[in-house]
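Q: My labmate handed me this sequence with no annotations at all. I'd like to see what the chain might look like in three dimensions before we decide whether it's worth expressing. Could you predict it?
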Amino acid sequence: MNIDEDTDWWLGSPTPLEMCRQHALMLENEYQEQSLQLRKARQDIQGLIQMQAGALHDKATAELKLKKAQAEIAGLKSKVSELDGQIGSLLVVKNQRDIILHQNQELLRQIRIGQTTISN
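A: Here is what I predict for the chain of 120 residues:
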C-alpha cells in the first residue's frame, strides 16, 4: 500500500486529471486574453494607419499651400524690385526738381534785386 496515493484525496492534492484540466483551463484563459490583446493591437494598428493617412493628406495639403505661398512671395519680390526701380527714378526726378526750384528761386531773387536797383 502506498500511503501517498491513498492520502492524496484528503490532503487537497489534485489528481493528475484535475491538474490536466486546470492546466487546460489556464491555457484557455491565456489564449482568450491573448486573443483580446491581439484584437486590441489590430484595432490600434488600424487607428494608427488611419492617423498616418490623415497626416499624409495634411502634409500634402501643407506642401501645396507652401508652394503657392512661395510662388506668391516670388511674385511679390519681383513687384518690390520693380517698385524699387520706380522709386529710384522718382528720387532722381525729385532731386532734379529740387535743383531747378532752387535755381528758379535764385533767379527770381536776382530779378527782384535787379528791379529794385533799377527803380532807385
